[in-house]
Write a structure and sequence with these properties.
Number of strands: 10
CATH class: Alpha Beta
Shape: globular
Number of helices: 11
Oligomer: single chain
Distance between the termini: 50 Å
Largest sheet: 6 strands, antiparallel
CATH topology: Beta-lactamase
Strand content: 15-25%
CATH architecture: 3-Layer(aba) Sandwich
Helix content: 25-40%
Order of helices and strands: HHEEEHHHHHEEHEHHEEEEH
Strand order of the largest sheet: 2-1-10-9-8-7
CATH superfamily: DD-peptidase/beta-lactamase superfamily
Number of domains: 1
Structural class: alpha+beta
């Protein structure tokens, strides 16, 4: 056992060395970097020189085998790059089309699908949820759509996962609300199971069918969905009894959980999504502004995202964690600055990179 364990550790260390030295996919902008020191190198070159040591240090400390990074500065893509290896077994490097599970970043993408229906006049965010969904627990029926989307609904945490949405509702029948809707904010995955069912009720389509027709298809997000078959998949692993073993990813609960936390995507696809919402080609400007604005000024929740201030600048963010897969997408509304990071780790429920994300935004995008 000791021999196997040592072999695994040595192999993992080699993976990190490969990852920290590899530059797999980079697109540098041709514009020049200009700052108070007179640096006139290409923007992408300078941005990469800032990002590389930050990312490499984080990967080494947090033991992250695989990571892809996208940085947009003033509306220009300056970094699109992979680090490390896609999986323990293959030792292949990731690129911008490597497929990751993105965890709760799925909620933000689901919210974009909702806002398209708002644009069409098919949904009213201030409407009570029972306008669109029947047979919900009585205490839920007066909660508005925007309260569900901003995690201000007050519905109880439903930790036991049943195979169907209806069975989950039955389990909630006797549970009181945790707080009066709109008076507090508490993150709750089932909020977006409800939102997914609202999409289905209004459109008459299954959630994934609707998202493919209205979001993924038009934007040519060809590697976004669930159950994706590809040779370019990132795989997560963890140490079990001294051996590194792959994590068998599974959807906890039923298909109702996909809108909340079980989509897959790639760096390239998420860059396309950001560009579409930034440039107004997907959502009307008024709807986009509504999506990224706080529902209640006292809480950080927006419609699918969270808004906070970094050095006095409003930054909109959503992250995700799911069984060894992690993600974060963060942007400055109206400024054209964004960071997207997808990665795997040995820790199924941790290894966040918020500080890394904030440091890159600050140093590359000049906060």
């Amino acid at each position: 056992m000791a021999r196997v364990s040592n072999f695994c550790v040595q192999r993992l260390q080699r993976m990190f060395l490969v990852g920290l030295c590899s530059v797999i996919f980079v697109l540098s902008a041709s514009a020049q970097w200009r700052d108070e020191k007179g640096d006139k190198r290409p923007v992408g070159e300078v941005a990469e020189s800032i990002a590389d040591p930050v990312i490499q240090r984080a990967m080494e400390i947090k033991r992250l085998p695989c990571l892809t990074l996208g940085v947009i500065k003033n509306g220009r893509l300056v970094i699109r790059k992979g680090y490390g290896v896609r999986s323990f077994e293959s030792d292949q490097p990731p690129d911008a089309n490597t497929v990751f599970y993105i965890g709760s970043l799925s909620k933000a993408i689901t919210a974009i699908g909702v806002m398209l229906l708002v644009d069409q006049g098919m949904l009213d965010l201030d409407a009570q949820v029972n306008t669109y969904l029947k047979h919900l627990p009585p205490t839920w029926r007066a909660i508005t759509l925007k309260q569900f989307m901003a995690h201000q609904s007050g519905i109880p945490q439903l930790n036991k996962k049943f195979p169907t949405f209806d069975r989950m509702l039955i389990s909630a029948e006797t549970k009181p609300l945790d707080f009066t809707p709109g008076t507090q904010q508490e993150y709750n995955n089932f909020n977006y199971a409800v939102i997914g069912k609202v999409i289905e009720a209004v459109t008459g389509m299954r959630y994934l069918e609707y998202m493919k027709r209205r979001v993924f298809g038009p934007l040519r997000m060809d590697h976004t969905g669930t159950g994706i078959v590809s040779k370019n998949l990132a795989k997560s692993s963890r140490f079990i009894w001294g051996r590194l073993a792959p994590i068998d990813y599974r959807i906890k609960g039923g298909l109702y959980a996909i809108p909340s936390g079980h989509l897959q995507s790639t760096l390239n696809d998420l860059i396309k999504l950001y560009e579409a919402i930034r440039t107004g080609t997907l959502l009307k400007p008024k709807t986009y502004k509504l999506m990224v604005s706080r529902v209640n000024p006292n809480f950080s929740g927006t419609l699918g995202w969270f808004e906070n201030r970094i050095k006095g600048i409003s930054v909109v963010t959503k992250n995700g964690d799911a069984q060894g897969f992690h993600s974060v997408m963060s942007f400055v509304s109206g400024k054209g600055d964004a960071i997207i990071i997808l990665w795997t780790s040995e820790n199924p429920h941790g290894n966040g990179l918020f500080r890394v994300k904030n440091e890159l935004l600050s140093r590359i995008c000049h906060f």
